[in-house]
Automatic annotation (TrEMBL):
Belongs to the ABC transporter superfamily. The keyword Repeat does not apply. One of its GO terms (molecular function) is ATP binding. InterPro entries: AAA+_ATPase, ABC_transporter-like_ATP-bd, ABC_transporter_ATP-binding, Motility-assoc_ABC_GldA, P-loop_NTPase. This is Protein involved in gliding motility GldA. Keywords: ATP-binding, Nodulation, Nucleotide-binding, Transport. Residues 3-228 form the ABC transporter domain.
């Protein structure tokens, strides 16, 4: 397996930054690692890349134990950390040469990588003269220079403008074709645009690990409904096929049904039977965004 985490916990003082998480990823998969700020994404990635050690659990990359054999495992990993720490005073080529030296690889591969990430026109410049999008390309170039099998990208598109976003996403998709990519983000659309699978982490725990195709096939239906009158949650439990009830605000509710049948007419009947008037009714697509809010909301 390219990536394997088993029962990993990382504790800071009495806080569990990640709490007993396990997942794996295989070659060819682009996995979106989603979660709100502070959920534990960076911590997990730092553990995977051997930058910090877990308090408990085991981690391997490309079947090499990251904890006992950290240097060896890093040969299989390309890592783009959050905020892309570059040496801004260096020229692009100089910076990549520096990385090539660290990895003891042939300098010839640099021009190939520069071409691959679309840096040809900017390669003669100093890094501090580049736009944020091109700096990300430099970070990605450094990450793939030694042709690693696994790419760990920590929020690689944060701070990019809409054009740069599209370009970097398609570059990641292209680079990920023959690799395993774990990409953290808090942008749901990003996962929908480039990933095959999504793992959502919240408060240090994995709350979902699914293929995107499975999510799309889901026969769950989410309806936002507002009544003219305050009712108790238990009352809504009487609705057929109901699987989750959440108060939106005041008399407005977010209801999840486990059925393919359109539940809106049933809700009208239900309201009428009980002398309620419906003031608001919206059927929401059960997309990643609703799922994310449901699973990570603190309300
Ligand atoms: P994310 O990347 O999802 O935003 P992090 O992995 O950075 O989340 O952080 C998870 C939790 O662990 C947060 O509550 C954060 O404050 C805490 N944390 C991360 N690094 C440290 C550290 N070095 N010392 C203490 N707490 C930390």
């Amino acid at each position: 397996m390219s990536i394997q985490l088993t029962s990993v916990t990382k504790t800071y003082g009495n806080q569990k930054a990640v709490n007993n998480i396990s997942f794996s990823a295989k070659k060819g998969e682009i996995v979106g690692f989603l979660g709100p700020n502070g959920a534990g994404k960076s911590t997990t990635m730092k553990i995977l890349t051997g930058y910090i050690q877990p308090t408990e659990g085991s981690v391997s990359v490309n079947d090499i134990d990251v904890i006992s054999n950290s240097i060896e495992s890093r040969k299989s990993i390309g890592y783009l950390p959050e905020h892309n720490p570059l040496y801004l005073e260096m020229y692009v080529k100089e910076y990549l040469l520096f990385h090539a030296d660290i990895h003891k690889i042939q300098k010839e591969s640099i021009s190939e990588v520069i071409n691959k990430v679309g840096l040809d026109k900017e390669a003669h410049k100093k890094i501090n003269q580049l736009s944020k999008g091109y700096r990300q390309r430099v970070g990605l170039a450094a990450a793939i220079l030694h042709n690693p099998e696994v790419l760990i990208l920590d929020e690689p598109t944060t701070g990019l403008d809409p054009n740069q976003l599209v370009e970097i996403r398609s570059l990641i998709k292209e680079l990920g074709k023959n690799k395993t990519v774990l990409l953290s983000t808090h942008i749901m659309q990003e996962v929908e645009a480039i990933c095959d699978r999504v793992i959502i982490i919240n408060n240090g725990e994995i709350v979902i690990d699914k293929k995107l195709s499975e999510l799309k096939d889901s026969n769950q239906q989410v309806i936002k409904v507002g009544f003219d009158y305050k009712i108790e949650e238990q009352f809504l439990q009487r609705l057929a096929n109901i699987s989750a009830i959440k108060n939106n605000y005041d008399n407005s509710w977010i209801l999840t049904f486990e059925t393919e049948e359109d539940m809106r007419p049933k809700l009208f009947d239900f309201a009428q039977e009980h002398g309620l008037k419906i003031l608001e009714l919206n059927s929401e697509n059960k997309n990643l965004e609703t799922l994310f809010r449901e699973l990570t909301s603190t309300k």
